[in-house]
Amino acid sequence: MTWSRCQIRRFVRMTPLNWSTATCNTVRVEKPLLTPTDRQVLSEDMKPIDPGLLTGLPSKPSLLGSRCTACGEHFFPVQKGCANCSSDDLQTVDLGSRGTLWTWTVQRFAPKPPYLGDPNSFEAYGVGYVEMPSGVKVESRLLGLGEDDWTIGMAMQLELEPVVVQGGATDLVTYAFRALRKECCND
Question: Does pTM top 0.70 for this prediction?
Answer without folding.
Answer: yes
